[in-house]
Amino acid sequence: xxxxxxxxxxxxxxxxxxxxxxxxxxxxxxxxxxxxxxxxxxxxxxxxxxxxxxxxxxxxxxxxxxxxxxxxxxxxxxxxxxxxxxxxxxxxxxxxxxxxxxxxxxxxxxxxxxxxxxxxxxxxxxxxxxxxxxxxxxxxxxxxxxxxxxxxxxxxxxxxxxxxxxxxxxxxxxxxxxxxxxxxxxxxxxxxxxxxxxxxxxxxxxxxxxxxxxxxxxxxxxxxxxxxxxxxxxxxxxxxxxxxxxxxxxxxxxxxxxxxxxxxxxxxxxxxxxxxxxxxxxxxxxxxxxxxxxxxxxxxxxxxxxxxxxxxxxxxxxxxxxxxxxxxxxxxxxxxxxxxxxxx
Length: 344
Known about the structure:
This protein is of the alpha/beta class and 344 residues long. The protein is built from 12 helices and 11 strands. The protein is 33% helix and 17% strand.
């Protein structure tokens, strides 16, 4: 296969930050994705409709001329969120979900929820107003091994949440384990999940073998090969519960390459190309369109996009950096490239 044309996809999990870094990274997403679910973990966090609308305008101003792109905004769920705030969000055409971070789970999650059982009234409101809950599904206790945090979160919290709120739409973000795949597959139709390109392409050896490689470090952390294979099988299965969410998370290079490096992989520069590589390795390119372009929009009750993008089989070398950001696979080869887009 020399070319592959699919419906223009959506990114159902994206970090673009704000300020100057936004101007660098947003064009990379807009050149290939029609829409993206924007994460709210800024400093300070995006907790109100007014903040989200201001952030949306900042994002729109960073979209290159001649490119259509729609940011789909989310609000940060905290212990201080009110039921009225959830109602206001449901009334806004631009708010599409609330994001739950356990406190301390990842970048800018200090405002997250410390005791999930205490926000059950808020989950009931989300269920009532039909707003999805997006979950970073990891426990944060020091006595839990970092490679077990996702599995323990499912066992300790998510099984109970889904039992108590059966009509609540939930996205378990950035799956990393076989157990998480099995949970989503066995759960009801209201439960879905996103999968990142790094978790499809790499296992934990990418971080640790032959020296520590900080640009492969993300949270949830890469796991064993058995888990990567389970993710590939889920992503390429055609099951609409699994869809594209890059979790592309830009950090300045010096913040990654230090004695306490930030978690996050920057993949937006070539997100669709990275997914195509993973699907091609699995001999499942015919399943890429559903995963990338249909299942996410269906879950969010959005119309499917009508534009197309074309990928060409073409080897190229990933640049060493974009401004002050080191991308995933910097200096390495990729084997697909998008045609007919602006050169960023």
